[in-house]
Structure formats: C-alpha cells, structure tokens
Amino acid sequence: MPSARTDLLEIHYETGGDPSASTVLLLHGWPDDVRSWRRITPVLESGGCRWIAPWLRGCGPTRFLSEATLRDGRTEALAQDAIDLMDSLNIERFSVIGHDWGARVAYALAALIPHRLLSIAAISLAYAPRGAFVVPAFQQSRAWWYQWFMSVDKGAEAVAKDPNAFAKMQWETWSPPGWFDEAEFKATARSFENPDWLAITLNGYRSRWRDDEERDARYAELSRRVASVEQLDVPTLMVQGATDGTVLASSSEGQEKWFSRGYQRIVLDGIGHFPTREAADVVGRRLLSHLQEHD
User: Fold this and answer.
1) Residue 271 and residue 256: Cα distance in Å, rounded?
2) pLDDT by residue (tens digit) across 115-145?
C-alpha cells in the first residue's frame, strides 16, 4: 500500500490509472473510508484518469507522526493534508471529488488553491459560503441530531463507548433501507479502528458548534483565508440524493450564484447520502463527464 509522509502524517492511499494521465483526488466522507470509491474508480480509469484516494486523518492506516499533535478534525486541517499529499507526490494541477467531509474539503480547496484545480465535484453536501457553520432551519437541524449529540459532553461520552454502533446508525438512517449489507459495513468499519478516529470525529463536529473546543493554531491562517472567500472560481458539479436523510435535498437548492466558472447540480431520485455506493454506475458516468469537460 503506497503512502506519503507530510510534516504531521503518514498518509496511506490507494491509486490507479495511467500515472501520466490527469489526476483526480478522491476524498471520502464520515463515517466511511476509501471503499466508497471502489465502484467509481474503474469508470474513471476507463476514461483515462489517474486517481488517488487517501484515508483521511483518523481513518484506516493513516497515522499521526507524533502523539503531541492536536487531533484537529476541522475542514482546514483536512484541506492542508490534501495539499501536503499532492505536494509530496509532485502533482501541481488536479481535480477533486469529495463526498460528505470530503466534499467540504473540496469546497475549501477551491477557495484556497483555485489555480491548482481543474474542477471539483461535491457529493451529498451543499456549499457553505466562507466556510461558515450556520444553525440551519428546524428540519435540517433535526436531521443533524448526531452533531448536536456529539456536541454535548454526555453525548460524546456515549459515542466513545460504542463508536461503531453510532456510525452504523448513520448508515441505517441516512439512506433508504437495504442499500448495504453487514459484510460491507464491517469491512468499512475497520477504518474506524484507527486510534485517532474518535478524537478526529468528535473534534470535527464539536469545533463547528462549540467555541471552547480545542483548535490547532497552525490552521488559523487557512481558516481566515477560507472565511474571506464567498464565490468559488472552479467548475463545480454537485451530486445530491433526493432522499438523503442527513443533508436534505432542499439544502443544496439555488446555489448557482456562488460559482463563477460553472455549476451543475444533479439530484438522484431514490438515492440517499451515499450515491457512490447506491448508484455507482450513474454517478461514475456523471463524474467522468464532468472531469473530461474541464480537463
């Protein structure tokens, strides 16, 4: 399994396709891992793409180099990890496809390094201008119950006692029934055995809503830069499941004004929060078309 060492991490990743071809960075979401791309990557390779799919910090075999490093799970930290990975591989220009947390990182990268990106695709997450976390309307807030739960100390303690059961509950409720089997969840949940998965998970969500959550000061400038950008200058595809149980389809409506170089939103009927798993053929073709259009 290939890996790359940055200042903070040993990032493990999967890769495929022609090494000389245009590169797409695949960033998975939470609670998930690189398995979410397994049915997408053959489509990308068939279209002549090289792809790189890392395990995010706190997931799978990716490891921190030092016990002393604050386990910061914010978007800016993950965005810096992505930049560091591509720098270490000497890849200057690339595309990004992100799901869930990975989609949030894709938007952040479009704000931070638009000159390096050919395009982005965001799956199952609407754009938040300036990277702001705003308490949404009641329906969306109800769908985000797990975020409020983790933001309460007793809730965080409960998650720590059985993190796998907590993760599985999201799989069971974020998409229509029957989209996964036990074997697939267990295979993916091996990534959650990473010793930092819980810390990154809790910090990633609690830092959104709690001012007293600890933050790594090294990302302060990145946060400032993201907060200064409202309109993105990178061609963008957004893929939304019509029956997504956590990011309601209504939350991603009417966002065209935030994108200066083109924006397309695709809504998939009967699909929930995991389109790359639930509708891999359709999603793969749409992603490949988007990449080829902007290569």
Assistant:
1) 22
2) 999 999 999 999 999 999 999 999 999 999 9
Residue listed under structure tokens 């170089």:
261
Joined tokens for residue 93: 């220009």
Helices (H), the chain: 41-46, 75-88, 101-112, 138-143, 145-151, 153-161, 163-174, 182-189, 197-209, 220-227, 275-278, 280-293
pTM for the model: 0.98
Q: How confident is the model at residue 295 (pLDDT cuts 50, 70, 90)?
A: confident
Tokens for 101?
């947390």
Q: Name the nearest CA neighbour of 201 among 210, 192, 209.
A: 192
* ∠ CA 183-188-192, rounded to 5°: 130
Which of 218, 166, 219, 174 is CA-nearest to residue 197? 166
Alpha-carbon separation of residue 197 from 98, 217, 255 (angstroms): 19, 21, 32
Per-residue model confidence as pLDDT tens digits over 29-47: 999 999 999 999 999 999 9
Calculate Rg over the CA atoms of the chain: 18
